[in-house]
Specification:
single chain; 375 residues; alpha+beta; four-stranded mixed sheet; two-stranded antiparallel sheet; 6 strands
Length: 375
């Protein structure tokens, strides 16, 4: 079995009560049977607390109950899980023990990413000098693909490697790299739709000049408005999106250019941070096209994620006059929570971004890159 993950995964440690947020909120965690048996042996007092925190759904699944503010009933006031605090990490249920690690298995390949919804995982990604992968073989027998087309998966792996290498060319403006990424994905999508997997595996990014458009800012506002219409986990998310979209819509062209210059001056690591974000989204979502064939929309998700974070950071800069690292971390975590953790939201966004005429990201990115390199 082959395994692959970003190299910063090894540095992840839960910071517990020091976390600026909590993962024990907003979603009901299904408890596995092994954990339920284990809970019967919990120390007196805690065993009763656990029993009172469990609820059974109509489908028979057992979950941890959420209290009024959306927090897990076993979360202490200081932000610590009572099971972990009073009994030990070894007694966490499977979902809680794994988070923020999410592993996708593609037959003989397992890939693990740290979900952005965890602020500490987002911080590790932000701080990485570059996005690098590590891989190993556990020496076990390769399991069957179980419905995964091996030729298609190999082609997606090959093209993803080229996409990540393209994003890593940091001497080029970020928006130009993202435009090239989308052009590569468009070529790949044609081969994928035709079932030409050998040709797909050979797809390479072009190096054309592209056609720029002045729609970068307008498309960014449109993206914020679209994200705000998706089903939210927390009401603060659509409120932030709506407020930022309104603030940016009120700016004239000169004010937009001035705000961008000010933001990028104060947010000196913005290019590296957003490059890492794009790489994470490509790593995690590109190979999932093996299931539904929507490769271009997944590449566009990487561009849209960068554009959304950039616009939200611009809104923060306009409000406070500075690019605050803690707020950036919170924005990344919110994007991951609201988009990646709700399958309906993720699917709807990928489907929408697959329509290049409605979402002309590549031309908008070319326009931004040209404006960025103008004297």
């Amino acid at each position: 079995m082959r395994h692959r993950q970003p190299d910063y995964n090894r540095r992840f440690r839960c910071v517990g009560g020091s976390c600026p947020d909590t993962c024990c909120r907003d979603w009901e965690i299904e408890v596995d049977r092994e954990a339920l048996r284990d809970y019967q042996t919990a120390p007196a007092g805690l065993r009763e607390r656990i029993a009172g925190a469990l609820t059974t759904g109509e489908d028979g699944t057992v979950c941890f109950r959420l209290v009024e503010d959306g927090r897990c009933a076993l979360l202490s006031p200081e932000g610590l899980c009572l099971i972990q605090r009073d009994w030990g990490e070894a007694h966490l249920c499977g979902h809680c023990a794994a988070y923020p690690r999410f592993t996708e298995e593609y037959g003989c390949l397992a890939e693990t990413a740290l979900a952005l919804s965890c602020p500490e995982a987002a911080q590790l990604l932000m701080e990485a000098e570059s996005f690098a992968l590590e891989q190993w073989d556990d020496g076990g027998g390769a399991p069957p693909f179980d419905g995964v087309d091996g030729a298609l998966l190999a082609a997606l792996e090959a093209t993803r490697a080229r996409a990540l290498a393209l994003l890593g060319e940091k001497k080029l403006p970020l928006w130009r790299r993202l435009a090239w990424l989308l052009e590569l994905a468009a070529r790949c999508q044609v081969r994928l739709d035709r079932g030409q997997y050998e040709a797909l595996a050979r797809c390479r990014p072009g190096r054309g000049t592209g056609r720029g458009s002045g729609g970068f800012q307008a498309l960014g506002v449109q993206l914020l408005e679209t994200l705000g219409k998706l089903e939210p986990l927390r009401p603060q998310w659509p409120e932030l999106l709506g407020q930022t979209a309104a603030r940016l819509s009120a700016l004239g062209a000169q004010a937009v250019r001035s705000a961008q210059a000010g933001l990028e001056r104060d947010w000196q690591d913005w290019d590296r941070h957003l490059t890492n974000l794009a790489c994470y989204l490509i790593f995690r979502h590109w190979p999932k096209a093996v299931n539904d064939g929507l490769l271009y929309g997944r590449a566009a998700l990487a561009g849209a994620g960068c554009l959304a974070v950039y616009q939200l950071m611009m809104g923060e800069w306009l409000e406070s006059g500075r690019a605050d690292r803690a707020r950036e971390q919170a924005i990344w975590a919110a994007f991951g929570r609201e988009v990646e953790h709700l399958e309906d939201n993720l699917s709807a966004l990928i489907q929408a971004l697959s329509h290049r005429q409605l979402w002309p990201l590549a031309p908008a990115f070319w326009g931004a890159a040209l404006a960025q390199s103008a004297p």
